[in-house]
Every structure is written in C-alpha cells, then in structure tokens.
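for the record, two folds in this file. i put them one after another cuz i was lazy. first one right below, seq on top, structure tokens after. the second one comes after a little note so u can tell where it starts
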Amino acid sequence: MNQYKYTAEAAARFNKHGVDLTVYGQADPSVTTVHIRVAEGHFEEFYNVKSSYTIYVISGHGTFYLNDEAVEVNATDLVAAPPGTRIYYFGNMELLLTVSPAWDEANERHVRFLEKNQIPNTPRP
C-alpha cells in the first residue's frame, strides 16, 4: 500500500547549526521535503555535490549567500541552488525546502562554520 500523507508529528525533527528542521518521510528517492524555521541564521556554509536545493520563503525575510553572492529574500520568493552551490543564510524566516535527488548525507560537504558576529549587514526585523 502506498503512503500518500506524511505528518509533522511523524517527521524527524532536529536542530542543525541554528535552524529547526522537520524532515518529512524519505519514501521517494527523487526528493526530500523539509520545513525550516530559522530565527537568526544557518551558521554553516555547505554544498551538496549531487542535489539541487529549492527553497520557498513562506514568511519573514533574510539574506541567502550563494557562492558568496548576497540574495535578499522575502515571503513568497523562491531560491534555486543547483548542485555545487555553496549556501548559508541569515534572517528570521519560515522556509520550505525540497532537495532533489533526495538528501543523502554522503553528498553534503561542510565548508565552514560562521559566528553570529560574522552576519554581514543582514536586514533584521
């Protein structure tokens, strides 16, 4: 029998480098869907060697840094980062992330950790 519905209650929940993640079922190898809440920032710069990251900004505002390029975002904006794009971000936002193909820890690469005092001129509420 196919599973068509995935609930937040059954999802994996954890905090990773400043963001609260709710990771929904990994039943489909083509995509991972993640609900993200971030109050200040994602304090790790990283990239994925195989997957694209598509991020929809549900609410809030902030700045994504994609290969060192600052991209200001607001609610209803969509950020598309192809494989190999270095990513980190700051702001107070609620996000919906899709990772395709599905996220695999073996494909994620750490670049560096950032400190709060390294937040560059990011708009704050």
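(here's the note) second protein begins now
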Amino acid sequence: MDILGTSLRVCVGDLDSAIGVYERLTGAEAIRFQRGGVAVAAVGCFFLMSGPEAELSVLRKITATLAVKDVDEAVADLKAVGADIIAGPLPTPIGRNLVARHPDGSVFEYVDRRQDGEG
C-alpha cells in the first residue's frame, strides 16, 4: 500500500478559534465538514474536531489518519498482516475511509480521495 501522508487529530473546544490558528500556522484554508455530531476542519496536515465528549472520546482512540492511494488496497494489506478492519470502507465528504486495529493494538484511520465508482 502507498501511504501518501499523515494527518494529526486535534480535539478542540472552540473550532472557529482553532481554525484561525491552524490556518495561520499551515498557510492552508480549512475544509469543514460534519462527522456525526462532531464538527471537523481539515487544515493542512491537521484534523481539528469539536463536539460532544462521548463522540470525541471514540475519535481520540484513533492514533492518526493515513492518506493512501486506495482504501481497497489498504484492506488487503492490512488483512495480510493480521489487522482487524473495525469500520468501513465507507464514503466520506473527502473520499473513502476505514478504521483498522493493527496486531499491536494501535488504531488508525486510512483514507483515500477516490469517490465511489472511480478507479
């Protein structure tokens, strides 16, 4: 699998204030979307997340988000090394994603920019 980059997850209390800080630090414009009850802003290599603690506590268990060329290829490679796919692949506003637990217990999200039907 080709890992193209990594995004860091940051839980914040005030998303609007945080966006200004991270836009300034990265020079990138925020892309905002909703994930359940959590408001998310992708800013450069950061995913800023704000929302109910019950939902954030689940998201905090994911170590990082890894951008890959193809989520389907990632599934095959992850299964080959004994990882458990615990969610997905599912479409998101920016591509498809899955969440996997590696054999060591680490949990990662994998995302691609493919839309359903492409490829």
